[in-house]
Amino acid sequence: MTNFDLYNPVNYVFGKGQIAKLSELVPNNVKILLTYGGGSIFKNGVYDQVKAALPTAEIIEFSGIEPNPRFETLMKAVQIIREQNIGFILAVGGGSVIDGTKFISAAVNYKGDEADILRKRILFKDVNEVVPFGTVLTLPATGSEMNSGAVVSIEATQEKLTLGGAALFPKFSIVDPTVIQSLPKRQLQNGVVDAFTHVMEQYLTYTHDALLQDRIAESILQTLIEIGPGVVENPTDYKLASNFVWSATMALNGLIQKGVPSDWATHMIGHELTALYEIDHARTLAIIGPNLYRVMFDSKKEKLAQYGQRVWNLTGASTEEIAEKAIEKTVEFLHTMGMKTKLSENAEAIEKTADIVVQRFEERGWLAMGERQNITLDKVREIVEMSY
Ligand code: NZQ
Ligand code: ZN
């Protein structure tokens, strides 16, 4: 096991009716910016619950944070905070609203061109330099409610880039599993697949001696496989909903990544597909993931076989045979979860995709990715072309 520091200061408040606790969690005597998306919180009653929990708070609202939040939109909120002496941000929404809020929090006091936060991947470590924020999660998928990372798109250049740092953990996150009842089926499917792939990015690397992390990762995968198909059909089932929400958080709150190698190339390539074609984040992962496992087969086959045996109970005459079956099982699961695993099934005019992705990675100096730094640009091209 490699050395690690584990730091996660998020006050994670889980369960039915917990939105009422907001009054204890939000600081008194500061103006609050309430950030949200396109209005789902009005339809499902979450907005009313938030307002009821904070009857006397001075709240200014900022709506319209879009899925795959845009730098250009978020900068309008940054301006409001700078002008209006706001001391706390309350994000109410899914990963996009929470990620957007992390960017807003970081950008308010940033000296210089705020796009550099994304382009130069500035790390925010000092909590005194960011605006504190809390979240009310409405869509389990990204883990953003309990991590310090975010993904923001620059509309002008069609780029989707990341930011983060230890100063960008939420102060608290309220996670009430009943809020998923209003999610469209497509978003429920996305949530399961995003969480599943987060575990795979941190688990499906090479065999190592961090036994507990492997077992935790495998148990999250097994839980998602067990409840995924059901929760999409029955989001009102509290047993399914609560296990889904907790699994999604556990998949990317930093725990399973400690002491082990991680990959993340499926996400890096997938982000380009969203930037180019606006394909839902999870759906890009379903397109790229299995082909990455195929192209990097020699590098990953031992871990693929372990995954096949322990998560899918597969047997076979050789490591290779079990590893191959494990990839096919994964594709089957993605299909069960409503994913279309070919790029051409998700977007049109895709012929130049591999050229564009490779060129962008080259310009950014992303020449070697993955747990062994052996996903070179040639491999990226092969993975993307295999995904057409
Ligand atoms: O905008 P509103 O009206 O709220 O509607 C949203 C949106 O249209 C809707 N929604 C959310 N909660 C709902 C609901 N509709 C009904 N009932 C509810 N309870 O769902 C739509 C999608 O929301 P969004 O926040 O975009 O989805 P998700 O949570 O999947 O977030 C995706 C974003 O997170 C990034 C992705 O790249 C993408 O930009 N990621 C962030 C990560 C992180 N911070 O660690 C890691 C991930 O890998 C991912 O990259
Ligand atoms: Zn993801």
Task: Write a structural description.
This protein is of the alpha/beta class and 388 residues long. The protein has two domains: 11-179, Rossmann fold (3-Layer(aba) Sandwich), CATH 3.40.50; 184-386, Up-down Bundle (Dehydroquinate synthase-like, alpha domain), CATH 1.20.1090.10. It has helices at residues 22-25, 40-43, 46-53, 71-84, 95-107, 116-119, 185-203, 211-233, 238-251, 265-277, 281-295, 297-312, 319-336, 353-364, 377-386; strands spanning 11-14, 31-35, 59-62, 86-93, 133-137, 149-154, 159-164, 172-175, 368-369, 375-376. Strand 6 (149-154) and strand 7 (159-164) form a beta hairpin. Helix 11 crosses helix 15. Bound molecules: 5,6-dihydroxy-NADP (NZQ) and zinc ion (ZN). Zinc ion is lined by residues 142, 194, 197-198, 267, 281.
Distinctive features:
single chain, 388 residues, alpha/beta, Dehydroquinate synthase-like, alpha domain, 6-stranded parallel sheet, two-stranded antiparallel sheet, 10 strands, 12% strand, binds zinc ion
From the 3D structure, determine the CATH topology of the largest domain. Dehydroquinate synthase-like, alpha domain
The first-to-last residue Cα distance is: 38 Å
- Within the largest sheet, what's the order of strands? 1-8-5-4-2-3
Q: CATH architecture of the largest domain, please?
A: Up-down Bundle
Continuous helix count: 15
Q: What is the typical, i.e. mean, pLDDT?
A: 97
Number of beta strands = 10
Q: Secondary-structure element order, as H and E?
A: EHEHHEHEHHEEEEHHHHHHHHEEH
CATH superfamily of the largest domain: Dehydroquinate synthase-like - alpha domain
Number of structural domains: 2
The CATH class of the largest domain, by name, is Mainly Alpha
Specify the overall morphology: globular
Report low-confidence residues grouped into runs of 5 or more: none
